[in-house]
Backbone:
């Protein structure tokens, strides 16, 4: 494709992007397709001859777009959002155009130095203390794997990396029973073994129960096991529980456990000073991850991973074959900070986003989400046919439909049908979880383009569809 053609297509794609985002509400939020429906329309064999880009775009719109779930739809209230924003998209286009592989300082000095600078901005914005040093990882899952590798090496004095865990006493890791599944996955990946993950019960408010953690650690130690790490959660995925770092921290400190914090979603709210209570006890923390790709208007993928002891991280992760040797001393080579060698230029989109909105603008957007979630919760509370199960601490709330006189034993089934009808309607997208065994509807306010009107329209739709189900 020559420059002239590329330019023409680039303009058309740019127009398409703006139109799409401007008109995203025309689409059903969740893709209304059955498994295999899209695949059937894709030829079994690759084209031998070149296909014109105009035709590729046409097929994209007609074949693929109907099979997309629209995460940038303002009525996307499911999971945690993967929110984006115009400045983030623009930066991502530039990143693609540069096509740089930013594994080492030398392979793109600006990418490395911007990443250092922007992660320092983010550290300051979120109120993390001086001494935490950040890097961008693809996901919170990878950051947690990395943190547990460092914890594993600390617990085995660096032996696990060299000789494996075969000759070591078994290591153990602790988290709350509401921690994200990525923690268990990571414990398996780093070779500690999923059976060595202790899921500590939570209190009524969803926070890990400190005394029970203490008992579990002591019991393992007495049995000859080696407690290596605690993964604390800020903002659990199921129901927005917040572990207390100030309670957990000293238990880790006394016994030399690595304390990693998974704040994947809630961490972005640390840019609001009124939510810094979340990190009371941060001085005990060894590492923390949160996802600007969830709630800081920066498109997937972008996880901010902070560690205090960078040397421990580098000791565990770095490896230097001859072909990767570069001559500069005292520079950061981010290839040594995570799992993958290759790295995209992801700092650029954070830089675009933070500068475009300013800290104030970002704070206002997150504050609005929290306010609207509170209003939504108040509306549920005021309706006798609905029950608020978890009030929002930030902007995640859980509720269920409980019409008067409906047999309690059928409520799970009724709410399951409600979620299905809501999502089939295309008007909005919610998901569910189970709390204390009950099926509950999860509703998160956090999409970039969501307004108060979308949240309240969501409530009207929920009420209308619930009534149509009878009960
Ligand atoms: C979303 C989420 C994760 C996983 O995030 P990825 O970046 O997709 O790996 C982990 N922990 C919590 C609490 C989450 O909400």
Residues:
């Amino acid at each position: 494709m020559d420059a002239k053609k590329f330019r023409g297509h680039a303009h058309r794609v740019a127009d398409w992007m703006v139109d799409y985002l401007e008109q995203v509400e025309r689409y059903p939020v969740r893709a209304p397709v059955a498994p295999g429906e899209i695949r059937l329309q894709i030829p079994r064999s690759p084209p031998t001859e070149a296909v014109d880009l105009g035709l590729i775009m046409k097929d994209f719109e007609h074949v693929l777009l109907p099979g997309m779930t629209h995460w940038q739809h303002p009525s996307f209230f499911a999971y945690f959002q993967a929110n984006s924003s115009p400045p983030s998209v623009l930066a991502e286009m530039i990143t693609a155009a540069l096509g740089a592989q930013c594994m080492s300082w030398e392979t793109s000095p600006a990418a490395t130095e911007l990443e250092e600078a922007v992660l320092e901005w983010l550290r300051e914005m979120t109120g993390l203390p001086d001494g935490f040093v950040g890097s961008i990882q693809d996901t919170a899952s990878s950051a947690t794997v990395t943190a547990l590798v460092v914890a594993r090496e600390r617990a085995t004095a660096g032996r696990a990396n060299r000789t494996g865990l075969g000759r070591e006493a078994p290591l153990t890791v602790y988290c709350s029973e509401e921690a994200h599944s990525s923690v268990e996955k990571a414990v398996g990946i780093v070779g500690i073994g999923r059976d060595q993950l202790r899921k500590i019960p939570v209190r009524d408010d969803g926070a890990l129960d400190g005394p029970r953690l203490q008992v579990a650690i002591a019991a393992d130690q007495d049995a000859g096991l080696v407690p290596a790490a605690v993964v604390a959660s800020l903002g659990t995925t199921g129901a927005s529980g917040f572990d207390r770092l100030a309670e957990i921290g000293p238990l880790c400190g006394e016994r030399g456990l690595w304390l990693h914090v998974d704040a994947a979603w809630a961490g972005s709210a640390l840019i609001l000073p009124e939510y810094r209570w979340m990190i009371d006890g941060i001085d005990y923390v060894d590492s923390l991850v949160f996802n600007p790709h969830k709630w800081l208007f920066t498109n997937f993928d972008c996880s901010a991973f902070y560690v205090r002891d960078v040397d421990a991280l580098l000791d565990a992760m770095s490896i230097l074959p001859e072909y990767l040797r570069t001559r500069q001393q005292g520079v950061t080579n981010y290839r040594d900070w995570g799992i993958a060698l290759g790295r995209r230029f992801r700092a650029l989109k954070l830089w675009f986003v933070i500068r475009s909105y300013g800290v104030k603008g970002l704070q206002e957007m997150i504050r609005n989400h929290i306010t609207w979630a509170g209003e939504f919760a108040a509306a549920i509370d005021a309706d006798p046919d609905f029950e608020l199960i978890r009030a929002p601490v930030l902007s995640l709330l859980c509720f269920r439909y409980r019409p008067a006189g409906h047999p309690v034993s059928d409520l799970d089934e009724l709410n399951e049908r409600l979620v299905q009808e809501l999502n089939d309607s295309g008007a909005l997208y919610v998901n569910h979880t189970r709390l204390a065994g009950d099926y509950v509807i999860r509703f998160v306010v956090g999409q970039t383009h969501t307004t108060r009107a979308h949240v309240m329209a969501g409530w009207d739709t929920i009420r209308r569809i619930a009534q149509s189900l009878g009960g």
Q: What stands out?
A: The CA atoms of residues 207 and 362 lie 28 Å apart.
